[in-house]
Amino acid sequence: MKPSARLQSAIEILDAVFDGKRPADALIGDYFKARRFAGSKDRRAITDRVYRILRARAKLGWMAEQVEISSSPRILVLMDCIVQGEEVESLFDGDQYAPAALKGRELEVLAPLAALDIATAPDHIRLEYPEWLDADLRSSLGNDFEDVLTALNEEAPLDLRINALHPDADQAQGELAKQQIETDQGSYSPLCLRTRKKVKLGGIQAYKDGLVDVQDEGSQLIALLSEAEGAELVMDFCAGGGGKTLALAAEMKNQGHLYALDISSTRLYKMKRRLERAGVENVLLNPIKNEVDPWLKQFELRVDRLLIDAPCSGLGAWRRNPESRWKITSELLEDMISRQERILKSAAALIQPGGRLIYATCSLLKRENEDQIAKFLKENDNFVIKSVQEVWDNRLGTPCPFDGDFMIMRPDLHHSDGFFCAILERTN
């Protein structure tokens, strides 16, 4: 493809992304499935541009406002070309498969756009976050506000989790190397391998054979800190696509019973293929209507470990889903916080004395994390915090990278997505 044709492809993909119905990665995948003629370099260049624009959407929108022009996908691509120092008039040339030639106002703003200084923009523009979240972010992140938000706008690496159930688990890194996938050991999880380059795992034999699966290192740690080995009855209360379910099953060594629950039966049953590939045999899939589904009553005071991977703002995953930061609203956040409270209350009744409730989010907002735990403990004096350092020492035996009672994983410090995890034990 010519460079100008790549630009047109980026415009078309952004049009679909801004429609808001499906995530960018799925749209990009479908786009190229329908265009097999695009080579690997074309796909990479187009994908890089789309994600670069999504990560700079606030800045590019601000630039458009300064020169009083629309911020349509075409204009965003045009401004990205200017920021990258590309010769825009030769790229927007109107040839076949290329964007239409520049004209009128588009030509007039080229020089003013090039002269703009992003450093003069407000913080929510420079750091790419919704302005209404400003107070929450500053309160939650304190002096690390700018460092964390800068890191949340960087490209995320690809982390793999070694499947401990696989007979070749000890040779996973070597097996991947044989398949031209170079990796480095994760910094914290003994099961984490981080790829040095972006790869498409669908064609990799180690992935097809269930030797590795995709899972961020922070997410892996939540499963490890659940200490599910030897537990007879474990629940993944908001199982979703099953990443943590698979990790818990491996921790349990395929023993006991692991219930994967979710309100979406479609999403839940999609997990079947992953379970089969990983050789997981102790998982029971069960859709529930909501957090107070009568079906749950039978498990009161019976569960050894219950993981709540709570629905949340998803702020900690902005590196992977940069468009998601513009979909969250203040009303949606308040609804999420209310749901988290209800799920915690319902799940607490299921934990047996001596059992543990593990509450996790992929958020760094205190209102979704520390504040939720404080409120829960105030209303449930039969639960106590199990210090993450104590659990880390028992399960991993390496220096714990977290201070205080909770696991708070930050992209700027730990080079992971943003995660929070609290471990609560029932005393009676």
CATH architecture of the largest domain: 3-Layer(aba) Sandwich
What is the overall silhouette? globular
Averaged pLDDT: 94
What is the fold named in CATH at topology level of the largest domain?
Answer: Rossmann fold
Question: Rg, please?
Answer: 23 Å
Structure characterization notes:
- The protein has 428 residues and is an alpha/beta fold.
- The protein folds into three domains: 3-121, no CATH class; 159-214, Alpha-Beta Plaits (2-Layer Sandwich); 217-426, Vaccinia Virus protein VP39 (Rossmann fold), CATH 3.40.50.
- Helices cover 42% and strands 14% of the residues.
- The protein is built from 21 helices and twelve strands.
- Strands 5, 6, 7, 8, 9, 10, 11 and 12 form an eight-stranded mixed β-sheet that branches. Strands 2-3-1-4 form a four-stranded antiparallel β-sheet.
- A hairpin with a 6-residue loop joins strand 2 and strand 3 (192-195).
- Helix 1 packs across helix 3, helix 1 (3-18) packs across helix 5 (73-83) and helix 4 crosses helix 5 (73-83).
- The radius of gyration is 23 Å and the shape is globular.
- The model has no long low-confidence stretch (mean pLDDT 94).
What's this model, at a glance?
This protein has 428 residues and is an alpha/beta fold. Helix content is 42%, strand content 14%.
